[in-house]
Amino acid sequence: MLMDDVKEVLISQDEITQRCKELGEEISRDYKDTVPIIVGLLKGSVPFMAELIKYITIDVELEFMAVSSYSGTESMGDVRILKDLDRSIKDRDVLVVEDIVDTGNTLLKVKDLLYSKGASSVEVVSLLDKPSRRTVEIEAKYVGFTIPNEFVIGFGLDFNQKYRNLPFVGILKEECYR
Ligand code: IMP
Questions:
Q1: Is there an atom of ligand 1 within 6 Å of 106 CB?
Q2: Number of the ligand 1 atom closest to the C-alpha atom of 133
Q3: If 42 and its partner were Cys, which of 28, 66, 96, 162 is the partner (CB 3.0–4.6 Å)?
């Protein structure tokens, strides 16, 4: 069973739902005069994006992008575009949805890219933030939870593509990644 690999539940399903409600309300207020394009970064953002948009009460459009950043638990520093946006974001307000901001490299590159495509604003909403790991200066405007320097899995976050379907954020048992 998937659960057997989990050392500890860090953030429960209920806590995530509650926080998504708060973030959804905040985003709805901040973007009330525009129709933002919400860009989900595949695949980690999918569960969070699905939960968050239920609580956004204004018109939005959804887009997806896939970039590669991680292999196993180590950051590689470079970011590749695996799937680009389907539609133009020129002169649009863009809100990027991310699972976690770790070193910040992914978001820095993605933000630059979206601005180079003509977005009028690019902000970020991330389920998790690991500020202690940051190597570049970047912050998400909206953060679900700030967490310590632990490798986490679940609610979209994977280890070698596994555990994304866990309905909570947890810490993996060490023997599972050693
Ligand atoms: P960054 O570019 O270092 O900020 O890394 C961002 C990406 O690394 C995230 O979108 C995740 O896919 C992955 N990542 C970073 N930390 C973790 C973690 O603790 N668990 C699972 N994936 C992680």
A1: yes
A2: 3
A3: 66
Q: What is the phi/psi pair of residue 56, to 5°?
A: -95, 125
How far apart are the CA of 100 and the centre of ligand 1, in A?
6
Looking at residue 47, what DSSP letter applies?
H
**Which residue lies with its CA nearest to atom 3 of ligand 1?**
103
Q: Is the pLDDT of residue 39 over 60?
A: yes
3-state SS, 87-129, equals CCCCCCEEEEEEEEECCCHHHHHHHHHHHHCCCCEEEEEEEEE
CATH dotted code for 13-147: 3.40.50.2020
Residue carrying the six token digits 């690019």: 122
Q: Model pTM greater than 0.90? A: yes
Q: Are 72 and 102 in contact (CB under 8 A)?
A: no
Domain ranges of the chain: 13-147
Higher-pLDDT residue of 79 and 128 is 128
- pLDDT given at position 28: 98
Please tell me which residue in 102, 112, 129, 158 is annotated as part of the active site: 102
126 lines ligand 1 (CB under 6 A): no
> In this structure, what token pair is assigned to residue 121?
């604003």
For ligand 1, the distance from its centroid to the CA atom of residue 32, given in whole angstroms, is 30
Sheet of 6-11: strands edge to edge? 6-11, 169-172, 152-153
CA of residue 101 to ligand 1 center, whole Å: 6
